[in-house]
Amino acid sequence: MTDENKDYVENILDDEELTGDPKRVDYPRRTHEEEYSAEVAPTRTYESSRTDREADQDNAAADTGTASRTVGYVGVGLGIASLFVWSIVLGPLAAIMGFYAYSQGSKTSGAWAIGLGAIATLSYFFLIPFTR
User: Fold this and answer.
1) Coil, strand, or helix at residue 29?
2) Rounded to 5 degrees, what angle do the CA atoms 112, 117, 121 make?
3) What angle do CA 50, 51, 55 make, to 5 degrees?
4) What is the DSSP letter of 129?
5) Is 1 helix (H, G, I), strand (E, B) or coil?
6) Residue 91 Ramachandran class (φ > 0 left, ψ -120 to 50 alpha, else beta)
7) pTM of full prediction above 0.70
């Protein structure tokens, strides 16, 4: 506290002792250095917010696992199909979907989709000269 504020607080305390009427210490604000965020912010209950957060994380993890597994299986299907038809279109698509599934946690189906897509695409470039 500055000397001016100390004098002000002492005067208020002296006035309170004389009149018996308590005065607000924080008014008038002379320094404007106060921080009121704790008083303005709503109070939170720790237990409910923690359980809600944990439940949301569990649900998000379950949704991500299901989505990556589905994308991985679709990528494997596209990789198999690309070995027979439209290998230049379906092969890279299978590889991209496999990479996404692999990065999201579905390692096995993602790796298979990447491998099948890469084989189909490379076989297209290798076999196309023999078709003419």
Assistant:
1) coil
2) 150
3) 120
4) G
5) coil
6) alpha
7) no
The Cα 101–Cα 123 span in angstroms is 23
For 41-77, write each residue's pLDDT tens digit. Answer: 566 655 555 666 666 666 665 666 788 889 999 999 9
Give 120's Cβ-side CA count (13 Å radius): 27
Residue 85: what are its φ and ψ, rounded to 5°? -135, 150
Q: How far apart are CA 121 and CA 124, in angstroms?
A: 5
Tokens encoding 126: 């290798």
Tell me the one-letter amino acid at 88. I
Which residues have C-beta within 8 Å of that of residue 112, sequence separation ≥ 6? 72, 75, 76, 79, 98
Instruction: Look at the block and give the residue holding tokens 């009149």.
Output: 19
- Three-state DSSP state, 26: coil
- Please give the structure tokens belonging to residue 57: 């994380």
Q: How far is CA 12 from the centre of its chain?
A: 51
Percent of the chain past pLDDT 90, that is, above it, reads 38
